Amino acid sequence: MNQPVQPLVEVDQLGHCYPGKQALDQVSFTIQSGQFHALLGPNGAGKSTLFALISRLFQVQQGDIRVNGHSLRHAPAALLGSIGMVFQQSTLDLDLSVEQNLDYHGCLHGLSAGIRKQRIQEELARVELLDARGKKVRALNGGHRRRVEIARALLHHPSLLLLDEATVGLDPHTRASLNRHVRSLCEQQQVTVLWATHLIEEILPADPVTLLHQGKVLANESAHNLCLQTGKASLVEAFELLTADRRRGDGASV
Ligand SMILES: Nc1ncnc2c1ncn2[C@@H]1O[C@H](COP(=O)(O)OP(=O)(O)OP(=O)(O)O)[C@@H](O)[C@H]1O
To answer: Any idea which GO molecular function terms this record carries (predicted)?
Structure first.
């Protein structure tokens, strides 16, 4: 008999309150290894709060997150070593070169000079920016800066790559190309991805989706199943139905 596969990521009953605002309320979902998992939610749903918790910008108040079995509460350093982050706001130093930005990150992760040199070369080649290694980040366009951030996030070979609204501010063509690139990392390099977005067009029918709205999980399903279960032809309509129910207070969930 087949054993159930242990998920790579377990978000378990996560809660977070700002003064006077419950931003996350008993949020639970899992991600299987090698998947492109979408965290779909409109502005204010709580996506960035979840990212701030997993990256330890905030202290965990309720619940836990486990990556590769490392608990945010009990083994935070091991968990941080297992993840790579691309935040909504760029965190590159514009006046350093691409290579200097990556090298600094490698130092923070304790990589030796030799390993840093090798990995910088590998990751920049993967995002097709090897020729830009000596350029200041300020000289790159928005799409290329995002690619540098992805290369940087993968430098220490994390199990999980998290991207928070990574395509914000990019033109439609660059958005689509970045989305395709990250999917190819899943398919070809077995990288596991949590892709937070409010843009439904970035999600494909087979993608597992966690639908987050006003701090609560409304659904954990593939986009295709969400349409089937709501009887809607498109994810846009399914999303409208589920979030409208919530706005009316029906509290429907799938
Ligand atoms: N520092 C804060 N103090 C109080 N409330 C906050 C704070 N930061 C966020 N919030 C509120 O918490 C809720 C969740 O915000 P969060 O930024 O996590 O959502 P989001 O899904 O990432 O949205 P966006 O894409 O607009 O950033 C929102 O209602 C927001 O106004």
So the answer is: ATP binding
Place of tokens 């200097």: 100
- 158 within ligand 1 shell (Cβ under 6 A): no
Residue of 16, 17, 21, 55 to test ligand 1 pocket, by largest number of atoms within 8 Å of CB:
21
Alpha carbons 38 and 197: distance in angstroms, whole number: 7
Q: Does the Cβ of 21 fall within 6 Å of ligand 1?
A: yes
Both tokens of 141, joined, read 């366009």
* Per-residue three-class SS string for the chain: CCCCCCCCEEEEEEEEEECCEEEEEEEEEEECCCCEEEEECCCCCCHHHHHHHHCCCCCCCEEEEEECCEECCCCHHHHHHCEEEECCCCCCCCCCEHHHHHHHHHHHCCCCHHHHHHHHHHHHHHCCCHHHCCCEHHHCCHHHHHHHHHHHHHCCCCCEEEEECCCCCCCHHHHHHHHHHHHHHHHHHCCEEEEEECCHHHCCCCCEEEEEECCEEEEEEEHHHHHHHHCCCCHHHHHHHHHHHHHHCCCCCC
pLDDT digits (tens, 9 = 90+) for 188-235: 888 999 999 999 999 999 999 999 999 999 999 999 999 999 999 999
ipTM, 2 dp: 0.96
